[in-house]
Design brief:
The protein has 123 residues and is of the alpha+beta class. It has a single domain, classed as predicted glycosyltransferase like domains (Thrombin, subunit H, Beta Barrel). 24% of the residues lie in helices and 39% in strands. The chain is globular, with a radius of gyration of 13 Å. The two termini are 21 Å apart. This is PilZ domain-containing protein.
């Protein structure tokens, strides 16, 4: 996501397994690292994602569709086609909290990426 879009909504750290789909290709073992009404940060592991349309499915929820706007290493930023209702965001983040030490490392890496520095510098 572009920096100004990323800051338009509050982002909430979480850790949830997710299934991804791009076209006919399915990725069963991704992790959603943060979530906002407008999008999410995903760790897609070793799978080869591309920019463009994607479906993100969290356990117990309907799939969210959106666009992969950027890819950096094993993480990618997704911008949802339709914003999530704030109550849905609250419910999801309450179900899948993330450990603070891991959250801090990923937040620092995300900020480095936005500033044009490689993530590996901070990790």
């Amino acid at each position: 996501m572009y920096a100004e879009e990323k800051r338009a909504e509050s982002r909430y750290e979480l850790s949830s397994k997710a299934r991804l789909r791009q076209g006919k290709v399915r990725y069963p073992d991704a992790i959603v690292l943060d979530l906002s009404q407008g999008g999410c940060l995903i760790d897609h592991g070793h799978f080869h994602l591309t920019l463009g349309t994607i479906t993100v499915k969290l356990p117990g929820f309907e799939a969210f569709t959106g666009l992969v706007r950027w890819i950096e290493g094993q993480t990618a930023g997704v911008w949802f086609d339709r914003p999530l209702h704030p109550a849905i965001v609250d419910h999801i983040t309450g179900l899948f909290p993330r450990e603070r030490s891991m959250a801090r490392a990923n937040t620092m890496a995300s900020h480095a990426c936005l500033q044009g520095r490689p993530r590996s510098v901070l990790l």
